[in-house]
Amino acid sequence: MAAPSYKLFCIGNPLLDLQVRDGEELLKKYDLKANDAILAEEKHMPIYDDLVKNYQVTYVAGGASQNAARGAAYVLPPDSVVYTGCVGDDDLADQLRAANKREGLHERYLVKNGEKTGACAVVLTGHDRSLVTTLRAAEKFEKSHLSSPEVAPLIDAAKVFYVEGFFLTHGTESILEVSKKASAASKVFALNLSAPFIPQFFKDQLQSVLPYCDIIIGNETEAEAYASATGLPEPKNLVATAKAIAISPKENKSQPRVVIFTHGPESTVLVSSAEPDNAKVFKVTPIPDDQIVDTNGAGDAFAGGFLGALVAGKNLNDCVEAGHKMGAMCVQLVGPQFKWPKVQIL
Fold first, then answer.
1. Range list of H helices, 39-133
2. Looking at 17, 90, 300, 318, which residue is catalytic?
3. Is the predicted pLDDT of residue 2 greater than 70, yes or no?
4. pLDDT exceeding 70 applies to what percent of the chain?
């Protein structure tokens, strides 16, 4: 029997989000910033039990790439998107599977018996979110899983690949294997910068993958962190940073590199290496404050909409607009979720 042919293949750290509101005291207690994403250090480890015992927790399927994959699955026909990452054999993984099924996302998890599935504490304060991640099983992903009988045919059949920057903290070899394969076959490989600490502290890993990337997605804080880490003269200039990334060395020269930076309710910037001096700026229609429920996952929703439109054969302008629609939908719901019954995006 032939393996299913999913057009979009996504890789990342599968996490279950533990989300709480009005977390000002938690920011102070655990020395967190209001609009940030970090890996948990020893001092942060008690936060997960703290949330469960002392706060009203909303459990939401998370993990940046998995969120984006669910977003892409939402806008595309059934059986279009598949995702892989490493989970434990526990009820957290079962909750992730249920959420993926609802959105139509297929997963091919590597399951580590005896391990706990990764978790992310999501501390909401107003419209800001602070993410504190303990990777657990997620960082035990093995490159050999990519060549396994259940995954290798899916990689061969896919047309577009997407990975979160967070995966660079432990899985650079796996990303390089897939990105080099995609580049050699003139398929599309997309990477999300994911968080400021990736270009700051995993610059070498990021730079090793960059030559194989056709699409880079990030937000204004990640762009600034990249500019500072690589010594660009205007760290806050999104267009200049996008151009610098767009024109940096690229292995597959048959297709341009496209860099997209979102900026919340501000304009989205797109620069293509085909026309590096002709940046496109897309206006965003801000959601009224009283309609914003939660900004957690909005960037992933944008990426999901963008990728879904790309897989569907839309032009870049339409891809950005699809991303905006998905991001707007996401901020009006709790966590990285989408409206049901389905809203037509494309």
1. 47-54, 64-75, 91-103
2. 300
3. no
4. 99
